[in-house]
From TrEMBL:
Pathway(s) of this molecule: Metabolic intermediate biosynthesis; chorismate biosynthesis; chorismate from D-erythrose 4-phosphate and phosphoenolpyruvate: step 4/7
Pfam families: Shikimate_dh_N
Protein name, per record: Shikimate dehydrogenase (NADP(+))
Cellular component terms per the entry's GO annotation: cytosol
Keywords per UniProt: Amino-acid biosynthesis, Aromatic amino acid biosynthesis, NADP, Oxidoreductase
Subunit structure: Homodimer.
Tree of life domain: Bacteria
PANTHER family from the UniProt entry: BIFUNCTIONAL 3-DEHYDROQUINATE DEHYDRATASE_SHIKIMATE DEHYDROGENASE, CHLOROPLASTIC (PTHR21089:SF1), SHIKIMATE DEHYDROGENASE (PTHR21089)
CDD domains: NAD_bind_Shikimate_DH
Biological function: Involved in the biosynthesis of the chorismate, which leads to the biosynthesis of aromatic amino acids. Catalyzes the reversible NADPH linked reduction of 3-dehydroshikimate (DHSA) to yield shikimate (SA).
C-alpha cells in the first residue's frame, strides 16, 4: 500500500486529482472519495479544471511538477490532456503505450507512471449493458485519446470491422493502422463516407466530446440514425446526452457513458491506492448521484 498515514486519525491518506477542461460536473471525485471512505481511507480528490484556471494543455508540465511536489499519489487525466501528457511521464504501462493515451498517472518517489483504464472500463460497461448485440460492422466517431482506448476495446469485444471517423482524418488513419497491426488486416478502417457507413453498420460508438455539458449538440446528423442500430456513448456528464435522447426516440438500443465512467474509476482507484475497489458499490454510488 502507498500513500501516507494521518497522525490524527491513523487512517491511510491518499491525495489525487483530475486534470481536464470543463469538468466541474464530473462524478469521479465523489466516486473515489466514497470508495476510499468505505475502505477506511482518508481519500482527498481534487478537480484541476483548466477552464476554471484559465489554462491550456501547455500548463501540463507545471501542473505535473506541482502534483509531485505537493505529494499527490495519482492523477486522472481527461479531455484534452490524454495524449498531451505522455511526453511528460517517466514511464508507460503496456496498455497506455499501445493506445497512445493516458487516463491515470501514478506518482511514486518523484516519478510518474502513465496507465490507461478507459478501454477496460468501456468493455466492462458494454458487456453488461449491450451483451447480445450484433457487432459485425461498427462505426466509431472519434479517434483521440478516449477513442483509441474504446476502439481497442471494441475489437477485443469481437467487432468484425470498425470504421473510424474523426475531424482529423490523419488521426483516424493512424489509429486504424495501429489497430490492424494489433488485431489483423482489415479489422479497422478510416471512413470517408459517414452516411454510407451508417446505413450498413450494426452499431455506433460515440467517442468525441460533443454532448458534454460544455459542448452540447449531436455529433452527427440525426437522420443517419435508424431503429436497427445500437448506440454506445462515452460522455457521462450529462448522462443523458442529446445523441442518446434522439437514438432512444428512434427505438435504438442504447448504452450511456456511466458504465465506462464507473469501471475506469475502479481501475484508477486500484492503481492509485493499491487496494481493490468494490465495483458494484461504486456503481451503486454513481447511480445515486
Amino acid at each position: 500500500m502507498t500513500g501516507s498515514v494521518t497522525a490524527a486519525t491513523g487512517k491511510p491518506t491518499f491525495l489525487a486529482g483530475l486534470i481536464g477542461t470543463g469538468i466541474q460536473a464530473s462524478r469521479t471525485p465523489a466516486m473515489h472519495e466514497r470508495e476510499g471512505a468505505e475502505q477506511g481511507l482518508r481519500y482527498i480528490y481534487k478537480l484541476i479544471d483548466l477552464d476554471k484556471l484559465g489554462l491550456g494543455t501547455d500548463a501540463l508540465p507545471d501542473l505535473l511538477t506541482a502534483a509531485v511536489r505537493l505529494g499527490f499519489d495519482g492523477l486522472n487525466v481527461t479531455y484534452p490532456c490524454k495524449q498531451a501528457i505522455i511526453p511528460l511521464l517517466d514511464d508507460l504501462s503496456e496498455d497506455a503505450r499501445a493506445l497512445g493515451a493516458v487516463n491515470t498517472v501514478v506518482l511514486r518517489d518523484g516519478k510518474s507512471f502513465g496507465h490507461n483504464t478507459d478501454g477496460w472500463g468501456f468493455a466492462e460497461g458494454f458487456r453488461r449493458g449491450l451483451p447480445d448485440v450484433r457487432r459485425d460492422r461498427v462505426v466509431q466517431l472519434g479517434a483521440g485519446g478516449a477513442g483509441a482506448a474504446v476502439a481497442h476495446a471494441a475489437l477485443t469485444l469481437g467487432t468484425g470491422q470498425l470504421t473510424l471517423f474523426d475531424v482529423d482524418g490523419a488521426r483516424a488513419e493512424a489509429l486504424a493502422g495501429d489497430l490492424c497491426r494489433r488485431f489483423g488486416p482489415g479489422r479497422a478502417v478510416a471512413g470517408s463516407n459517414l452516411p454510407d457507413a451508417m446505413a450498413r453498420t450494426d452499431g455506433l460508438i460515440h467517442a468525441t466530446p460533443t454532448g458534454m455539458a460544455k459542448l452540447p449538440g449531436l455529433p452527427l446528423p440525426a437522420e443517419l440514425l435508424h431503429p436497427a442500430l445500437w448506440v454506445a456513448e462515452i460522455v457521462y456528464f450529462p448522462l443523458e446526452t442529446e445523441l442518446l435522447r434522439v437514438a432512444r426516440r428512434m427505438g435504438c438500443q442504447t448504452l450511456d457513458g456511466g458504465g465506462m465512467a464507473v469501471f475506469q474509476a475502479v481501475g484508477a482507484f486500484q492503481l492509485i491506492t493499491g487496494r481493490k475497489a468494490d465495483a458494484d458499490r461504486m456503481r451503486r454510488h454513481f447511480s445515486s448521484m
